[in-house]
Write a structure and sequence with these properties.
This protein has 430 residues and is an alpha+beta fold. The chain has nine helices and 14 strands. The strands form five sheets. It has a four-stranded mixed beta sheet. A three-stranded antiparallel beta sheet has the order 1-4-14, covered by helices on one side. Strands 5-6-7 form a three-stranded antiparallel beta sheet. Helix 2 packs parallel to helix 4. It is globular, with a radius of gyration of 22 Å. The structure holds fe (ii) ion (FE2).
């Protein structure tokens, strides 16, 4: 009897924890959108980015389509036209608004999208009232929906930055906060890691995306990792040394991008009166030499590493270095909304591993040995993108709390720059 009661209590507690997390994440999306006007929320800066309104509706469509429509008895979809408007890339869910044209959706209005969110939130609360067992299929889907919405929260911020950077007024998402001038760090420390057969990938305890599994053996050669990220000051030195004009530093596709897109600095950098400024969520700000460089492509990161006589780490080297570290850093929770200079070195441990900027690795985004995409529509979530992209590790100043771990695999095309992307150097041990 006592045991039964305690099991019941654990179940109720587990349900409440999940429901509260869900509602907190749903609320955070509203908070992130709060500074924006209806116009800000509608326009699309470029093909890769989506309007805020679209993000807010799409994550809601995800809950409606994959959870409420299937698991809440008598659920009534809010609007039958929304499947077309807010399906992202799920072939199994039918045709959709082409990605590059999400910005023409002046209708439905922002108000109607907010009403959609409220309708789906009510459905989710109703679902919990009917009972969601902590280990059930529905709980698993809700967990995926939470993590999915968190991914879009980061995109919401990076896409708004792209939009405001394209605006000649260079508007600020948030009023600038005072910035303490940090001294430029000296040379990075280097941490040596032994070689051997090691394990990488998620072990199944707690949430992870399917692409983080299975945990498997990896062969590691002895390597050395910088104990901090590459800074803007170091990037300025690369620029001053002609980094963007020296073909021998670049991969062929990278050199083609430099010439085609006339790259001569990271994305969002502009020179005014001889001073380098960078567009940020706090508007146009002087480049902080002590802070990590952000908004560089894989091609740029790779060229910088070659110029520095180093290389980028593999995703497995990065994971080996990260796996025993506390998962703390400058994520969205700090509200800095920008990469911050490294704290002073201490204890021979790498700094800035979680947060600030996603770190490019030299690993192609590939399935782990034995990987199978999940059955059903959600099998389209990760698996079908496993070609032509590079893995980034760590997390950024826009990554929501609880969405960071040592096994997390982010992935982008090597020419993309609009995320908070930076780098850390590695080398062989010679
Ligand atoms: Fe999505």
């Amino acid at each position: 009897m006592t045991r039964q009661l305690s099991v019941q209590r654990t179940t109720i507690e587990g349900r409440r924890v999940l429901e509260n997390r869900l509602l907190d994440v749903r609320r955070l999306s509203h908070e992130l959108a709060a500074p924006l006007s209806a116009e800000d929320m509608t326009v699309q800066a470029m093909e890769d980015a989506s309007p805020t309104k679209w993000h807010l509706a799409h994550v809601t469509w995800f809950f409606e389509t994959f959870i409420l429509a299937k698991h809440l008895p008598h659920y009534r979809p809010f609007d039958d036209t929304f499947n077309y408007c807010f399906n992202s890339y799920y072939e199994s869910q039918g045709p959709r608004q082409p990605r590059p044209q999400r910005g023409v959706l002046t209708r439905p209005s922002s108000e109607r999208v907010m009403a959609y969110r409220a309708h789906v939130d009510e459905g989710l609360v109703e679902l919990f009232a009917l009972g969601v067992e902590p280990e059930s299929e529905i709980a698993r889907l809700i967990e995926i929906g939470i993590n999915h919405e968190q991914q879009h929260q980061e995109l919401l911020l990076t896409d708004i930055l792209a939009l405001f950077a394209a605006n000649p007024l260079r508007p600020a998402y948030r009023n600038p906060r005072p910035r303490a001038a940090a001294p430029e760090p000296g040379e990075p420390g280097w941490i040596d890691y032994p070689g051997g057969i090691r394990q990488a990938g998620h072990d199944g305890a707690g949430f992870a995306w399917d692409n983080e599994a299975p945990r498997h053996d990896v062969l590691i050669h002895p390597f050395r990792l910088a104990d901090r990220l590459v800074t803007n000051g170091e990037w300025l030195a690369f620029m001053a040394a002609g980094g963007y004009r020296t073909a021998s530093l670049w991969l062929a596709d990278g050199w083609a991008a430099v010439n085609r897109d006339e790259w001569d600095a990271p994305l969002y950098w502009e020179q005014r009166d001889g001073q380098w400024l960078a567009m940020s969520l706090e508007g146009l700000q002087p480049v902080d030499r002590a802070a990590p460089v952000a908004h560089v492509s894989y091609f740029e990161a790779d060229a910088f590493a070659r110029w520095a006589g180093k290389r980028l780490p593999t995703e497995f080297e990065w994971e080996i270095a990260a796996q025993d570290l506390p998962v703390t850093g400058n994520g969205l929770a700090t509200k800095a909304l920008r990469p911050l200079p490294a704290e002073p070195a201490s204890g021979g441990k790498p700094r800035q591993m979680f947060g600030d900027v996603w770190e490019w690795t030299q690993s192609a985004y590939l399935p782990y040995p034995g990987y199978r995409p999940p059955a059903g529509a959600l099998g389209e979530y990760n698996g079908k993108f496993m070609v032509s992209q590079q893995v980034l590790r760590g997390g950024s100043c826009a990554t929501p709390p609880g969405h960071t771990r040592a096994t997390y695999r982010n992935f982008f095309y090597p020419q993309q720059r609009w995320q908070f992307m930076g780098l850390r150097l590695a080398s062989e041990i010679t």
